[in-house]
Specification:
globular, single chain, Arc Repressor Mutant, subunit A, 152 residues, mainly alpha, 3 strands
Length: 152
């Protein structure tokens, strides 16, 4: 692709995509008002990532969240104080630390997953099934291409 207008189209669609994505999906990551934890959006994102990974190193969490190491440490500390995560030394490598969800953290993760899935179901409820399938495939393609770009 050498045509400048192709890159302009990509730029335009990326800006539009980001705007739509944030408008439609941001409510899932807003500060929780459940009265118990009041997690901010980064805490919610971190719990979603850790919950899907079972356990994760702080450096991998940094990469997934696109945050600096010091910020991740502060984030983990705050979630640890809330009782949502705990640190565990790697028995095979004493230099390595794993971050895992506590039982409370797992319950919170499940609640957030259910909330997110419910929101997705609601958003897509008016779209024909064929278009939802096309969106799902297109999203997989986008993620695959972005992963390639990131690692090149």
């Amino acid at each position: 692709m050498n045509n400048k207008s192709d890159y302009e189209d990509i730029r335009h669609n990326l800006i539009k995509f980001m705007s739509l994505f944030h408008r439609l999906f941001r409510p899932t990551f807003k500060r929780e008002t459940d009265g118990e934890y009041k997690c901010n959006k980064n805490q919610i994102r971190a719990i979603m990532i850790i919950g899907r990974s079972d356990k994760i190193s702080p450096s991998v969490l940094c990469e997934y969240m696109d945050m600096e190491k010091g910020s991740i440490t502060t984030l983990i500390d705050s979630m640890e104080k809330m009782g949502l995560v705990f640190r565990e030394d790697d028995p095979k490598d004493k230099r390595k630390i794993w971050i895992q969800l506590t039982n409370e953290g797992k319950e919170y993760f499940i609640k957030q997953e259910e909330k997110f899935i419910s929101q997705i179901e609601e958003l897509f409820s008016t779209i024909p099934e064929k278009e939802v399938d096309e969106f799902k495939q297109s999203l997989k393609t986008i993620v695959t291409i972005l992963d390639k770009i990131k690692t090149s």
